[in-house]
Design brief:
The complex is a heterotrimer of chains A (about 375), B (about 300) and C (about 500). By secondary structure, chain A is mostly helical. Chain A contains 15 helices and two strands. The longest helix of chain B has 27 residues. Classes of the chains: A mainly alpha (about 375), B mainly alpha (about 300), C alpha/beta (about 500).
């Protein structure tokens, strides 16, 4: 019989090892899944994890990985603030959409004017859009005690409807021959989030992601605010005793994650995606939840987790084109990763003790 | 132009019940889990998995009944994963529930990828003799599909079981104070696992109701937040079975009303009508969250048998 | 012998809770199990009740082999247990609670009738329709006892039953227990209060460090002898020197606040003054507004600004940190999660309240070196046993963590310190150290408010004394002028015990 024994304190070794263990188990069971689908499991796993980085077309794939990882890291850093404090913003997808919309709207409003100030204005308004959308659950939680999980999630569906309305209505390209979708920012230099270094895929969003990692790292390791966030999550009553204003923490965490998600949306719409369209959002806001957990809510961990998750996106695409693997299988892969991570996490806080089968002491 | 009067009240009532059934099923299951102290945010994932399983099996067997059984099995299997995570590996309920939802969305997309555009076998309506001949009420309330009746029966059964039976009392006790229940010798983990599995089965049925009866066809992510609304309804009900029914009807009513308004071509953009159920959910959460004193005291807390 | 244990051992990670314990309990006997906190009393009775399985050793009931797989089997074998904590479901009714404690309860209506009969026979009045959360501590215990008695137990285990009772309620309980013993029920009575044991028990077994270190007949042994067996060495009692009450530091005037939880207690017009160099003791059974009073003092609950004045300055509206800057510090009762964050390191926990007064951060950036030094100072000054400052608070034993918590506040040199249950669940050596530290703090000119349900503690250290009862504060009296029975009367009243007729 297996028994769990609580460790006096979390094991350092396992805190760092569990993500790696989870990745390993995911690869194994992912391979098993592909074998079930009739593929060669080794080939499939290689196609996902090896090909994009070291394969024949890596020169094309590597920038793509960065492009996918940027928004994931940016959003996940924001989410990790709240998750550490026990504030569950799972509506980053909605904040991402609204940020993209407000940012794009500002850019399109200036069309076809050119000026250096247009893009910075878009960035600010993208962040403001995300903050606006995230402050709704923050306000409703602090003022009325409404559950932020449900409110932020409901707002994703609302945002999707707004996106549809905007893509078909006010933001539609007037010269687009009636097709849905806005003007393409790639044809509007003043509002275009172009690559910083040609051919690398690195655009401002990726730089912003790196800055956010550093910001979060300093926040948590040095600043009293990061300490208060941790305290609120670990022991809410102790936080109140210490004098931490709960509402302030809720607003800070939700609004910061909203701002980062909004920025991710803005950089995406004005860069890689290029235009506002009905199917603009691709679920980064949800995948970022996995990234945040996989990175153990630690900024540097999130950076690596984001790169890995970006890799699975691109790897999924290569596997799809090369082996004909169904596109949904990568989603399962990601879901499985989170599952295993949560499951093996028990090792950091508990010790597994094997108890011999009960032997009755002689009476 | 708009033609509000073309909305037939009988049809409206009938479709209200049909629209509320999936959330009613899922919310009832979640209610039982939450009363046992388990916060399972994976309802959406279990529903969509049930929707896919039910759809596929009934297409292949030609029997909606077997499809529903398969859906319940699919939902239960998903919830078993959640039970494993939260009850055995002592993982955080919120994170595990999110994992379940993300995984379920992917799994159902994979399972259902060959079934887009396929028609499932129809589920017949059950016309209750005599009652269905009543004017207005007859066609509205008493000639529904059998699953709607079963959902109603389930709510009543859950209500009775929670309020009156000994197992209901034990379940509530476990949700209220797991340490005390453990000290009295009740198997906290066993009770919770059973409650989770029941919740999964109900969510699976609810999902299949969407893919087999309400829509009926398969599209990715077709539950479109119904699982989350079911979670909100449990809060709305302040953890009482009777009020779950009320909540489900309220949301069913809003859904049907906005669909009818869309069909009637009223001068409100379709998108605004489509977002109304979600906005109403938020509104209801805001109004009702002030009083959450009925929430089970151990809700979402991890239980590890103390020394 | 009704119950006999032989060679029971049980270890937990890092601790041996029971080490080769053997003992016997006879029919109709009130048998005391005494020892300090952490001596292994609770583990031993949990083994008897089937909640914990021994690593080795065996038990017999009436000479028959007895190895319960769980409480259900223990109850079937005739064992009942009244718990100290965690045993009632607050949101459920008394009858529901009783039904949950039985394996084959009769239908609810019959159960109510039997409950009423039983509670009349043993003098344990109960209102079966009430919600358990609304009951007083004494009433809750009655529910527990009735729950056990309904199953006609042959052995009744009582875990620290009097720690939540007023002296009058204790007397009533003892009457009930003697009646039960006369009818042949064996009672295993856990306590560390030696006076009570001398008054009640026929025999006593003493545990120390998990081992059975001897037994005695309490009525024939002296309290000093029993205490020495229990502790292993003689203890230093805190030294109390007379102090002069200086200028008024804190003035509480007509303080009212809401209950802090669904089943909490609201404070009703509490007024008192504390002077420099003085310890004000506030007694009373926990759950009568103690938590709420401390929260109002610490700033966790904000109140009308003028109802709390620190050195004539109204501070009721200030948050905890602002009050700390002005010199008002506090330590709540619950170490795990309130006064300290168990999953965070000791350094983190030092920053928790030390940030402002110790200047551990500047412009928002935490100085971890300074924080770590402050933490080390606490550990050294208060003899906190831990491998290092980077250990989590939760890894410390109760006594050590409590010393850390109290030490953290004292080292910040408060003008006034408010503490709630400073020695609750703490071993005797740590408790003595904490009391001495509070006395020393007062001697150095600080004011101290000590809220505690341990009367002996308050009599020992406080200069003036009042009690908190259902949110109301009694008159404050000089401690020297009070007798135990007068204190008992101050605490009574609202506990369903008719004070006027209780023998004083």
């Amino acid at each position: 019989m297996l028994l769990l024994e609580r460790r006096p304190q979390p094991s350092r070794f396992w805190i760092y090892s569990t993500p790696l263990l989870a990745i390993a188990i995911t690869m194994i069971s992912g391979g098993a899944l592909f074998a079930l689908l009739g593929e060669n499991p080794v080939e499939a796993v290689l196609a996902i994890f090896w090909e994009p980085v070291f394969g024949e077309f890596s020169f094309y794939h590597r920038p793509q990985i960065l492009i996918k990882s940027g928004p994931l890291v940016l959003i996940a850093i924001g989410l990790s603030l709240g998750f550490r404090a026990g504030i569950w913003n799972i509506g980053a997808e909605g904040q991402y959409i609204i940020g993209a919309l407000t940012g794009a709207a500002v850019g399109l409003a200036f069309y076809p004017m050119s000026g250096w100030f247009i893009f910075p204005l878009m960035v600010v308004s993208g962040a403001m859009g995300g903050i606006l959308w995230a402050s709704i659950p923050a306000f409703l939680r602090t003022r009325f005690g409404a559950n932020e999980i449900l409110v932020s999630l409901m707002l994703v569906y609302v945002a999707e409807q707004i996106l549809a309305k905007m893509a078909l209505g006010p933001l539609r390209n007037p010269d687009g021959h009636g097709f849905p979708g806005s003007r393409n920012f790639q044809n509007y230099p003043s509002a275009h989030n172009a690559e910083l270094i040609a051919g690398t895929g690195i655009h401002l969003g990726i730089a912003a992601a790196l800055v956010s990692v550093m910001f979060a790292h300093v926040l948590f390791s040095k600043h009293i605010l990061g300490y208060r966030i941790r305290l609120s999550g670990e022991a809410p009553r102790a936080a109140r005793f210490a004098g931490v204003g709960t509402s302030r923490i809720v607003f800070f965490c939700l609004c910061t994650s909203g701002a980062l998600a909004g920025l991710a949306g803005l950089f995406e719409v004005s860069g890689p995606s290029g235009q506002v369209n009905i199917d603009f959002n691709t679920g980064y806001g949800f995948t970022a939840i996995i990234v945040a957990f996989l990175g153990r809510l630690h900024p540097v961990g999130i950076l690596f987790a984001g790169l890995l998750m970006g890799l699975t996106y691109i790897g999924g695409e290569t596997a799809e084109t090369r082996l004909g693997l169904p596109s949904a299988s990568i989603q399962i892969f990601q879901g499985m990763l989170l599952f295993y991570l949560l499951a093996v996490d028990v090792l950091s806080n508990y010790r597994i003790r094997v108890k011999p089968p009960k032997t009755r002491s002689s009476a | 132009m708009t033609d509000l009067f073309s909305i037939n009240i009988v049809v409206l009532l009938a479709s209200l019940i049909s629209a509320s059934t999936p959330i009613l099923l899922a919310a009832t299951g979640e209610l039982v889990a939450e009363r046992a102290g388990v916060l399972n945010l994976g309802v959406e994932g279990m529903m969509i998995t049930g929707a896919a399983c039910g759809f596929i099996v009934s297409v292949h067997t030609g029997s909606p009944a077997i499809g529903f059984i398969a859906a319940a099995a699919g939902g239960t299997a998903m919830s078993a994963l959640f039970a494993l995570l939260t009850q055995c590996a002592l993982a955080n309920h919120v994170a595990s529930g999110l994992a379940l939802t993300l995984f379920g969305l992917g799994l159902s997309a994979l399972l259902g990828q060959g079934y887009v555009g396929v028609k499932p076998p129809p589920t017949g309506n059950l016309e209750l003799p005599i009652l269905s001949d009543l004017p207005v009420l007859g066609p509205a309330l008493f000639s529904q599909d059998i699953v709607s009746y079963l959902a109603l029966a389930l709510v009543i059964a859950v209500w009775l079981a929670l309020a009156r039976s000994r197992s209901g009392l034990i379940l509530r006790a476990v949700g209220e104070n797991h340490n005390a229940a453990h000290a009295l010798g009740y198997r906290v983990v066993r009770v919770r696992v059973l409650a989770i599995l029941f919740g999964g089965g109900c969510a699976g049925l609810g999902g299949a109701y969407i893919s087999l009866i309400r829509v009926p066809q398969w599209t990715d992510g077709m539950t479109a937040g119904a699982g989350w609304i079911a979670l909100a309804i449990v809060v709305f009900s302040s953890w009482k079975a009777g009020r779950v029914l009320l909540g489900a009807w309220l949301f069913g009513g809003i859904t049907v009303l906005q669909l009818n308004l869309q069909a009637a071509g009223i001068a409100i953009p379709v998108e605004y009508l489509s977002m109304s159920p979600y906005l109403i959910t938020i509104l209801v959460l805001v109004i009702l969250s002030a009083d959450n004193s009925n929430a089970p005291a151990s809700l979402g807390r991890i239980f590890h048998a103390p020394r | 012998m009704l119950l006999s244990l032989s060679g029971i051992s049980r270890r937990f990670p890092g601790v041996v809770a029971n080490d080769d314990v053997s003992m016997n309990v006879a029919e109709g006997e009130i048998h005391a199990l005494i020892g300090e906190n952490g001596a292994g009393k609770s583990t031993l009775v949990k083994i008897v009740y089937g909640l914990v399985k021994p690593d080795s050793g065996s038990m017999k009931i009436d000479g028959e082999h007895y190895a319960p797989l769980g409480p259900t089997e223990a109850r079937a074998a005739g064992i009942g247990m009244v718990f100290q904590h965690f045993s009632l479901f607050d949101a459920l009714t008394v009858t529901d609670n009783i039904a949950l404690g039985m394996d084959n309860p009769p239908p609810m209506r019959k159960l109510s009738v039997r409950t009423r009969e039983l509670s009349k026979n043993y003098g344990l009045p109960l209102d079966s329709g009430k919600i358990a959360g609304a009951l007083s501590a004494g009433e809750r215990q009655r529910v527990e006892i009735v729950k056990c008695l309904l199953q006609n137990p042959r052995i009744l285990i009582m875990d620290e039953p009097t720690s939540v009772l007023t002296p009058q309620e204790t007397k009533t309980l003892f009457k009930t227990l003697r009646k039960l013993a006369e009818s042949g029920v064996a009672i295993l009575y856990i306590s560390h209060k030696l006076k009570e044991i001398r008054a009640l028990c026929d025999r006593a077994t003493i545990l120390r460090g998990g081992r059975n270190v001897g037994s005695c007949v309490p009525s024939e042994a002296s309290i000093g002898d029993m205490a020495e067996m229990m502790v292993g060495s003689s203890l230093k009692s805190p030294v109390k020197k007379s102090r002069n009450r200086g200028k008024v530091v804190l003035e509480v005037d007509n303080l009212c606040s809401d209950a802090d939880s669904a089943f909490g207690i609201a404070l009703k017009q509490v007024s008192f003054k504390v002077g420099a160099g003085e310890i004000l003791g506030i007694g009373g059974v926990a759950g009568n507004g103690q938590e709420e009073l401390l929260a109002a003092l610490s700033g966790e609950t904000k109140v009308e600004s003028n109802t709390i004045r620190l050195k004539n300055e109204p501070i009721g509206h200030l948050d905890p940190d602002a009050r700390r800057i002005l010199g008002l510090l506090a330590a709540p009762a619950d170490r795990m999660g309130h006064a300290a964050a168990p999953n965070m390191t000791l350094v983190d926990n030092a920053v928790l309240t030390g940030n402002r007064r110790e200047r551990l951060s500047s412009r928002g950036f935490i100085n971890w070196d300074a924080s770590s030094q402050f933490c080390q100072r606490i550990i050294n000054a208060f003899d906190v046993r831990t491998p290092g400052t980077w250990n989590t608070a939760g890894s410390l034993s109760g006594g050590n963590l409590q010393k850390f918590v109290i030490g953290r506040e004292i080292l910040q040199k408060p003008d006034i310190l408010a503490v709630n249950q400073p020695t609750w669940g703490v071993d005797a050596a740590a408790a003595a150290a904490i009391r001495q530290a509070l006395i020393d703090l007062a001697r150095n000119g600080s004011a101290v408010i000590c809220i505690s349900q341990d009367l002996d503690e308050l009599i020992e250290i406080s200069d003036r004394f009042g009690t908190l009862n259902r949110g109301e504060l009694s008159d404050i009296r000089k401690t020297e002028s009070l007798s135990t029975s007068e204190i008992g009367l101050m605490m009574g009243g609202a506990h369903g015990v008719d004070v006027a007729h209780a023998p004083a």
